[in-house]
């Protein structure tokens, strides 16, 4: 058998097994050494290929698509430094538990470490940031090697998905010639109805005696709190709402919890806690006896202070599979169980439990006052907060909101009030970086879901080349670009007092006219000056096709003053109405 046939059958069986195991999308960055995989993936009838030239952009595009669909997405690049450009997105995927199938082409073994071009050490390149690494053999087409190719493809998919999802890495050495032959008979191998190695996994459920132990610890306590951090299960809101209603507990919900919006009951939902927990005296006033947290640590730094100051409370952290996401270092009970199932078990076994109603009412009054302030703001000019508030009012039902880090996620935390709209909120909060935000949102939009991205000017600048995907594929995305000409988050930090070095090291103004970049990539551009114009621009963008960028220009120093005045007014009003 000629080498070209061996190459074709080996790679085709691997690719076909990816499809049989559920892979539907691959993001390919062009290169020579990856030709066998690139052409075969593009040829397969059940796999959609997305061509993204820059590997860093491509990897974040795949990350966003995987986040939006909750399905594995494959990445493919050539050998050499192309593989290194994947690293930031792989770190984010690991930290935020996103399934990626990372496929890197490589030089054959005789061309490694001898000075050959585009040859670097790619063995375990991503270290502990991938769940599994496999160095694939040089292609052969014997029955045993075709079975080996299929078993590794199937294993890659189920390893990426099992337990806490994450990226896996397979490295493929190829000799020349690199072009496969799709004219071969039965090129995709054997026909089957399922994957080579199907996996059957059940939900974790706690034994009854453990449920009783948990209830024994809390039922004699008076003041409890449920906290929902970033998580993706859209069914959790209904389960949490029911448990909180029966037990009479406040529920602090992070903007990434998927619980601030939807059709579940929201009577006990507390979404304004970041504003009023900034007051140290209120954090003491609201001391909890126990806290049950679902999902990752909330975005809010005020809540972080709250958790740090109440280390003696009984803490529980619920993880669906495993993990140790406790950055505070409190003594904590970790509960590894399906969260929806756990709520049902706790409710069934603790139906008679009811906690302090005055405690719940205090949280609700503080939250109500906070909401009144957030809803009642009236500014003559656009501020960063009012821009985000207007966006959240205008965003369409049944759409996704992708949120940048730094100030964007914090303003969404403040102004995303509970709503009956069905809004799926995404962010790259695993490593909290600003890289790849444009590409991530466009990847989410590639699923066909309407996507709005809100981010700052530095995040936008950092990934402007990601806009090419919107032009290439006519992806529908609205970008609310909040431009304060620099790193606005640093103006809230102690570094702001160091005037000598602040602008150069932290403020970092870029002084760019982003309209020109938007036009270059074929997008529409709007620059509103007040809330009415902003709402009109957003509504217009949602009826346009392709890329639409709405830029709001603000001042960093004014933004700090505006936010601090808002928080102080909320705190003062709570003191008058609730504390005294």
TrEMBL record:
GO terms for MF: 2-succinyl-5-enolpyruvyl-6-hydroxy-3-cyclohexene-1-carboxylic-acid synthase activity
Domain of life: Bacteria
Catalytic activity annotation: isochorismate + 2-oxoglutarate + H(+) = 5-enolpyruvoyl-6-hydroxy-2-succinyl-cyclohex-3-ene-1-carboxylate + CO2
Start and end residues of each Thiamine pyrophosphate enzyme TPP-binding domain: 437-552
Ranges where the Menaquinone biosynthesis protein MenD middle domain occurs: 221-403
Broadest EC class assigned to this enzyme: transferase
Pathway: Quinol/quinone metabolism; menaquinone biosynthesis; Quinol/quinone metabolism; 1,4-dihydroxy-2-naphthoate biosynthesis; 1,4-dihydroxy-2-naphthoate from chorismate: step 2/7
EC number: 2.2.1.9
Domain Thiamine pyrophosphate enzyme N-terminal TPP-binding: 13-124
A Pfam family: TPP_enzyme_C
Cofactor note: Binds 1 thiamine pyrophosphate per subunit.
InterPro entries listed in its UniProt record: MenaQ_synth_MenD (IPR004433), MenD_middle (IPR032264), THDP-binding (IPR029061), Thiamin_PyroP_enz_TPP-bd_dom (IPR012001), TPP_enzyme_TPP-bd (IPR011766)
Keywords: Magnesium, Manganese, Menaquinone biosynthesis, Metal-binding, Thiamine pyrophosphate, Transferase
Cofactor section: Mg(2+); Mn(2+); thiamine diphosphate
Role played: Catalyzes the thiamine diphosphate-dependent decarboxylation of 2-oxoglutarate and the subsequent addition of the resulting succinic semialdehyde-thiamine pyrophosphate anion to isochorismate to yield 2-succinyl-5-enolpyruvyl-6-hydroxy-3-cyclohexene-1-carboxylate (SEPHCHC).
Family membership: Belongs to the TPP enzyme family. MenD subfamily.
HAMAP family per record: MenD (MF_01659)
Subunit structure: Homodimer.
This protein's name: 2-succinyl-5-enolpyruvyl-6-hydroxy-3-cyclohexene-1-carboxylate synthase
Organism: Ornithinibacillus salinisoli
Gene label: menD
């Amino acid at each position: 058998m000629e080498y070209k046939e061996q190459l074709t059958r080996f790679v085709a069986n691997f690719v076909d097994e990816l499809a049989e195991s559920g892979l539907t999308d691959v993001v390919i960055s062009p290169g020579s050494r990856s030709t066998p995989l690139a052409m075969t993936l593009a040829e397969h009838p059940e796999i959609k290929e997305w061509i993204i030239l820059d590997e860093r952009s491509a990897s974040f595009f795949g990350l966003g698509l995987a986040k939006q669909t909750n399905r594995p997405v494959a990445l493919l690049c050539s050998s050499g430094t192309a593989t290194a450009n994947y690293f930031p997105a792989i770190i984010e995927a690991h930290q935020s538990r996103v399934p990626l199938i990372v496929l890197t082409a490589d030089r054959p073994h005789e061309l490694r470490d001898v000075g050959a071009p585009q040859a670097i050490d790619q063995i375990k390149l991503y270290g502990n940031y991938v769940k599994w690494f496999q160095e694939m053999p040089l292609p052969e087409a014997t029955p045993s090697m075709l079975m080996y190719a299929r078993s590794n493809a199937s294993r890659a998919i189920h390893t990426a998905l099992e337990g806490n999802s994450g990226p896996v890495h397979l490295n493929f050495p190829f000799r020349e010639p690199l072009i496969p032959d799709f004219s071969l008979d039965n090129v995709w191998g054997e026909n089957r109805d399922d994957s080579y190695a199907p996996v059957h996994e059940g939900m974790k459920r706690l034994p009854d005696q453990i449920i009783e132990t948990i209830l024994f610890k809390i039922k004699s306590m008076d003041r409890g709190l449920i906290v929902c951090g970033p998580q993706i299960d859209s069914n959790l809101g209904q389960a949490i709402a029911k448990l909180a209603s029966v037990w009479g507990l406040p529920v602090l919900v992070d903007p990434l919890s998927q619980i601030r919006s939807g059709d579940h009951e929201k009577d006990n939902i507390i979404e304004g806690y970041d504003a009023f927990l900034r007051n140290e005296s209120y954090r003491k006033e609201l001391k909890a006896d126990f806290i049950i947290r679902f999902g990752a640590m909330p975005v809010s730094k005020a809540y972080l202070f709250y958790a740090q100051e109440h280390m003696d409370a009984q803490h529980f952290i619920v993880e669906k599979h495993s993990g140790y996401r406790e950055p505070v270092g409190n003594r904590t009970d970790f509960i590894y169980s399906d969260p929806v199932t756990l709520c049902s078990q706790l409710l069934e076994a603790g139906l008679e439990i009811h906690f302090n109603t005055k405690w719940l009412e205090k949280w609700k009054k503080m939250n109500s006052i906070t909401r009144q302030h957030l809803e009642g703001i009236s500014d003559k000019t656009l501020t960063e907060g009012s821009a985000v508030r207007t966006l959240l009012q205008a965003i369409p039902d049944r759409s996704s909101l992708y949120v940048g880090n730094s100030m964007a996620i914090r303003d969404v935390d403040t102004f995303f009030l509970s709503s009956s709209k069905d809004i799926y909120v995404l962010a790259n909060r695993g490593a909290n970086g600003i890289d790849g935000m444009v590409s991530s949102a466009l990847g989410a939009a590639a699923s066909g879901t309407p996507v709005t991205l809100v981010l700052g000017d530095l995040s936008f600048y950092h990934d402007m080349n990601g806009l090419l995907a919107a032009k290439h594929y006519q992806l529908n995305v609205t970008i609310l670009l909040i431009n304060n000409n620099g790193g606005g988050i640093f103006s809230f930090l102690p570094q702001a007092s160091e005037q000598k070095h602040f602008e150069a090291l932290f403020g970092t103004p870029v002084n760019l006219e982003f309209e020109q970049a938007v036009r270059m990539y074929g997008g529409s551009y709007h620059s509103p000056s007040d809330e009415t114009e902003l709402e009109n621009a957003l509504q217009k963008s949602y009826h346009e096709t392709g890329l639409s960028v709405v830029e709001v220009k603000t001042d960093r120093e004014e933004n700090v003053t505006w936010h601090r005045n808002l928080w102080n007014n909320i705190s003062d009003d709570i003191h008058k109405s609730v504390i005294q």
